[in-house]
Amino acid sequence: MSDHDTDEGVTIGANTPELSVSELSQALKRTVEDRFSRVKLRGEISNYRGPHSSGHAYFSLKDENARIDAVIWKGAMLKMRMRPQEGLEVLATGRITTFPGKSSYQIVIEALEPAGVGALMALLEARRIQLVAEGLFDPSRKKPLPFLPKIIGVISSPTGAVIRDIIHRISDRFPRRIILWPVRVQGETSSIEITQAINGFNALPDTGDIPRPDVIIVARGGGSLEDLWAFNEENVVRAAAQSAIPLISAIGHETDTTLIDFVADLRAPTPTAAAEKSVPVRADLSSGIFNLMLRFQAAHKRLQDRKQQDLLRLARLLPNSDHLLSTPRQRLDRSSDRLESFSRNHGNSQRLKLARLASILARHSPQVELARTREKVSSYQRRLHQAMQAYMTLVRQKNQGSRQKLITSQTRLNRAIELLFEKNKEKLTRLSHLQKSLSHHAVLSRGFALIRDKGGDFVTSVTQVTGTSHLIIEVSDGLIHANVCDDATQHLKRIERKEKLQRGQRKKTTDDQGSLL
Q1: In the predicted model, what is the mean pLDDT of residues 269-294?
Q2: Which residue segments constitute the domains of the chain, with CATH numbers given?
Q3: How many helices and strands (H and E) does the chain possess?
Q4: DSSP element (H, E) containing 488
Q5: pTM of the model
Q6: Of all helices (H) and strands (E), which one includes residue 275?
């Protein structure tokens, strides 16, 4: 019996339309998304391993009895003010959809927030422990504030009472230039805006249209833990820790504490207190400078009076000038007399010495020495002239002898060259006659001939000649080209055998005669 038949013979499901698996999955997806287009779930994050390489996040939400898959797309992940954390109880807002590849349903989360103050406190404590372990709260990292900054940067909401209180308080104490970087201090994008503001102030150049502030105040009024949560975000805390500009945190009231307070260079209990700590009171500075000026004038007057009294006391201790200078005067008079006597005696002795030198100089006057030297020079010139004449005569005699020797040598050389030429000429003539007598042309002129084959090799035997050979015959006055026929070959062979026989008989006769001898 078929699965589609019943006992009555009626087919079950005969009118049910046929669907593919994909069509069914799409229909279920549309139904679920239409029914649960917007839901808010409370549960504990499970199996969270951080963002995927694509930027999306995949994890699960669970309670005591059930579990649902969850996904946060990359765009929504970047806008969230808090990040998923394993074991954290959260409130997730999103839509329910299905995943046909696994035949499962899941929630696509668009907003995420801790489920109550307890969860926020647990997350805050875990984050605080992590940052403490990294050393971001170390007091040695804090920078000193400038005593009197020229420019103060404020990061806060432009519409709240905080910025007005800061401007008013700074104007009362010591007017300074204030640059406001407007941000949202509450909401999903507030942490990103605050981080960008801190980094933006630090990125400003020292010289530019917007000057770089000397100190930064991050301020916000009071609120609940959820309202102040942006200042507990990790990106805000790290930006404040990395700020090269000294930073003052003024978040909430005195009892409110956020993580940015631990990394700030100075924590102010209120925004107004932050303004007070950023600049001194100009009236107090003026009063202090005036008091210091009065103290300086009084001290200067006392110093002048004391120096004048010391001068009078020292003047009374000085002796009378006549008593003080009497001994030096006497010493000066005696020295003057001794100097005059010494000068007179020294002048007389120098005059005597000069007279002796004058007499010596008269005997050796320049004119006498010059005449004596001129006479010596004349004598030297005469001797040099005589020596030069004698030398020139000797040189001329030597040159005449050398010239005669050169003429004789040249004559002998010419005669030797002529004899050498004649000797070589005779030798060359003999060699030429010998060459002609030994040359094969002389033999050819007596009726002999040279026979070569067409390859240019000499023919020395009839065995080298066939009936079709081409021979080149050289005689005394030219070349003869000849072709050999078979009869001529046989004739040449008979002649060669006859010559061999005759040579054999002559050799035998010679041998017989030798034996007789």
Answers
A1: 88
A2: 21-115 (2.40.50.140), 147-280 (3.40.50.261), 450-516 (no CATH)
A3: 13, 13
A4: helix 486-516
A5: 0.44
A6: helix 271-278
